Amino acid sequence: MGKQVNPRRVSENEALAVGNMLRGSPQKLNLVAETIRGLPVEKALASLRFNRRGAAEQVRKVLESAVANAENNHNLDVDQLVVAEASVGKALVMKRFRARARGRVGKILKPFSRLRIVVREVEEK
Q1: Most C-beta atoms within 10 A of its C-beta, which of 47, 56, 61, 123?
Q2: Which intervals of the chain form a coiled coil (predicted)?
Q3: Can you give the CATH number for the domain in which 34 is found?
Q4: Largest CA-CA distance found in the chain, in angstroms, rounded
Q5: CA distance 82 to 87
Q6: Which residues span the domain enclosing 40?
């Protein structure tokens, strides 16, 4: 008797990729993620490639991972994929301190984020 199979977290026509511990605040990462929600994958990748924000490269890598998961693990057609969900959450925050005048300290917060992208295969109309 072996270990039970882990149930799928998404439906049969969807694939998932999660980026953990992405450096940058969730607010800044969400600004980039909301630009690709609902777009076809090829348009979303083109949009991220020419986006000027620094977080766009991290979002692009997670999106490419979701597309690769859809193709290799779930046998979905890459040409019919749409970004169904792109959600951003908080991960840990590194706390650092910097010496300031008169014996005081300045708090430096270095936030990390978590990005979850779900791509869905849709039928062409």
Answers
A1: 56
A2: none
A3: 3.90.470.10
A4: 68
A5: 15
A6: 14-121
